[in-house]
Design brief:
278 residues, alpha/beta, globular, binds NADP nicotinamide-adenine-dinucleotide phosphate
Length: 278
């Protein structure tokens, strides 16, 4: 199936991805124990792909692997090489052999290779992180994953991890970043990653939907014919190296999040958006 070309693109590794992608935490997870909403979630993901969003974020941890299965279902029939699938290894599977095993299991559930594979969460034992990164480098050589990244790594740990790489670069760090939680700005992480041309993948960008209900952000959005959620996402993708991955299991939310792309807030309105939530 054709994936439409959309112009609001960012770079991860050497690939172009849409500035807004789709998260999947909760899809196929505990909040849905009887899988009754699986169909709706798959449809929402397919709807996003049909609109032109080409990036999906999942993890072995989400729904104990079931989220990856649903992503595998959703991407069926789409041109695989136009899509960018992110998955992650959970710390209990860090280590040379177990990380490789975990990646193979994720790829099996997805029914395809993984474009970007992340260490999901940092641990204290850096030698184990290092060993895992080296295992991932071998997985790149094997063709199971295409790029390596980390998640929830602060600036110091990110730099240390970059130094530990032998053959490939760390191309992304996925961290919590929203209008209400701007720690990547205050900690210097965002500026550093910009200089390193590394993608910052912003998770929980809508603060679980709360920012979509912010009256002050709605006021800013009205001037652009946009909603509060679209303002909140646009604030993030304003930075060249930032990609946002809101999770939406409803089609109307997918439509709205898609509409966060293709335009930009003025610098002044961006500052006003910060004031709204301060
Ligand atoms: N790397 C990590 O450690 C980590 C941690 C947390 C999250 N993540 C990733 O980041 C993704 C996004 O974060 P998140 O799920 O925590 O939070 P989020 O994207 O900020 O919020 C998701 C919630 O917002 C609702 N929503 C989505 N679009 C909306 C819109 N336009 N208007 C109103 N409500 C809307 C969704 O509802 P519906 O589902 O009903 O549409 C859902 O309840 C996750 O799904 C996951 O892929 C990664």
């Amino acid at each position: 199936m054709h994936v439409p070309v959309f112009e609001d693109l960012k770079v991860i590794g050497g690939d172009k991805v849409t500035a807004v992608g789709m998260g999947t935490w909760g899809i196929g997870g505990k909040e849905n124990p009887d899988y009754s909403r699986d169909g709706e979630s798959v449809e929402a993901l397919r709807h996003g792909l049909n609109l032109g969003m080409n990036l999906i974020d999942t993890a072995e941890f989400y729904g104990a692997g079931h989220s990856e299965e649903l992503v595998g279902e959703a991407i069926k029939g789409f041109e695989r090489e136009k899509l960018f699938i992110i998955s992650k290894v959970w710390p209990t599977h860090f280590g040379y052999e177990s990380a490789k095993k975990a990646a193979r299991a994720s790829a099996r559930r997805l029914g395809t290779y993984i474009d970007l594979y992340l260490l999901h969460w940092p641990i204290d034992d850096f030698r184990r992180i290092e060993e895992t990164l080296h295992a991932l480098e071998e997985l790149v050589d094997e063709g199971l994953i295409r790029y390596i990244g980390v998640s929830n790594f602060d600036l110091g740990l990110l730099k240390r991890s970059q130094e530990a790489m032998r053959k490939y670069e760390i191309v992304a760090n996925e961290v919590k970043y929203s209008l209400r939680d701007r720690w990547p700005e205050s900690s210097g992480l965002l500026d550093y990653m910009k200089r390193e041309r590394m993608a910052l993948i912003a998770y929980t960008p809508l603060e679980k939907g709360a920012l979509a209900r912010d009256e002050c952000l709605s006021g800013i959005g009205r001037r652009y014919g946009k909603t509060a959620a679209q303002v909140a996402l646009n604030y993030l993708i304003w930075e060249d190296n930032v990609v946002a991955i809101p999770k939406a299991s409803r089609k109307e939310h997918v439509d709205e999040n898609f509409g966060a792309m293709g335009w930009r807030l003025s610098k002044e309105d961006r500052e006003k958006a910060v004031e709204c939530v301060s």
